[in-house]
Write a structure and sequence with these properties.
This protein is mostly beta strands and 139 residues long. Helices cover 0% and strands 46% of the residues. The chain is globular and about 45 Å long. The mean pLDDT is 95.
Length: 139
């Protein structure tokens, strides 16, 4: 077995130039970069006052950092629940199988940069519907 790194091409992305798609939870997402087999990077946007649908992921986990705006994130895993404030600079984890839902405050959009590990698979079965604390309004 070799310890030689697997070389991948350099990639550069600009958020404003990335395509806009709707995430399974209803948030606007701009896929940015992928490292094969390791992870993907995306920018999420939620309009003022919007609430996503509650979901859990079947095969991926995520790390988020809030880059603008404010809101709340609800998470549930293994019988425990937590709701945290989201403000610029806040970083949160979404471990595999965690039910989660987030919402933007009414005074402005919420923007989050997220790393998904392994990369987002793009399948219809990845995001599983869950019961969350808020009525969804996004997407």
């Amino acid at each position: 077995m070799s310890n030689q790194p697997v070389h991948q091409p350099f990639a550069t992305a600009a958020v404003d130039a990335a395509p806009v798609v709707t995430a399974p939870d209803g948030a606007e997402v701009r896929p940015l970069l992928v490292l094969d087999g390791q992870g993907s990077l995306a920018a999420f946007h939620l309009a003022p006052g919007q609430v996503t649908r509650a979901v859990s992921h079947a095969t991926v986990q995520e790390l988020w950092q809030v880059t603008a705006g404010s809101g709340e994130l609800w998470r549930r895993q293994d019988g425990r629940e937590q709701t945290v404030r989201l403000v610029p600079g806040t970083a949160v984890s979404i471990p595999l199988g965690t039910a989660f839902q987030f919402r933007a405050d009414a005074d402005g959009p919420l923007r989050i940069t997220a790393v998904t590990m392994p990369p987002w698979p793009g399948t219809d079965t990845e995001a599983r519907p869950e019961d969350g604390p808020w009525a969804a309004t996004a997407g």
